[in-house]
Amino acid sequence: MARAAHTAGLVGSWSRSDMRGHFSSVLTAKQAVSLAADVGYLDFTDHRLGDLITRVRSVFPGASIDAPAYARVEQRKQGHPWHFDTGTKGHMPWVRYTAGVLLVPADTFSGGGFYFRDAPEEPLFPYLDLNTWDGAPENEHCVASNSGERVVLLMFFRGEDYGGS
Questions:
Q1: What is the pLDDT of residue 5?
Q2: CATH homologous superfamily of domain 17-159?
Q3: Is the predicted pLDDT of residue 14 greater than 50, yes or no?
Q4: pTM of the complete model
Q5: pLDDT tens digits for 20-49?
Q6: Are 5 and 125 in contact (CB under 8 A)?
């Protein structure tokens, strides 16, 4: 199934009102293949993440990669229900900012749309693009279940204001 990377008007722009945005074409297909092969946790010192972290910090200067922040390449067929990135059970209270990049073309899987609660009719399929958002209530989101090979890079950043562990 061929799909365009729909971005709900966010391409190359940032909305300061709800701190949600999009950087187009941050990876090459070759870089995405390299990352997609490493399903699991990645160290933020991985050279493939450097430019992505820099882009996130260009909008969120307080985005910290200090523990417990983490990066993960994920392949999850069941998707994720509606949630905030502090965790469905509040198990990640330190998360202030999140970024994600779809590492495979949208035509390699069915379903798997990424949705924000305030735009549930507009699935995002951001292949090679960086989406990022803060922990504001407007940024509740979900990922639909999927079949095929949906693989995404997720990065969860703590804020400078977080003093817990």
A1: 36
A2: q2cbj1_9rhob like domain (2.60.120.620)
A3: no
A4: 0.87
A5: 888 999 999 999 999 999 999 999 999 999
A6: yes
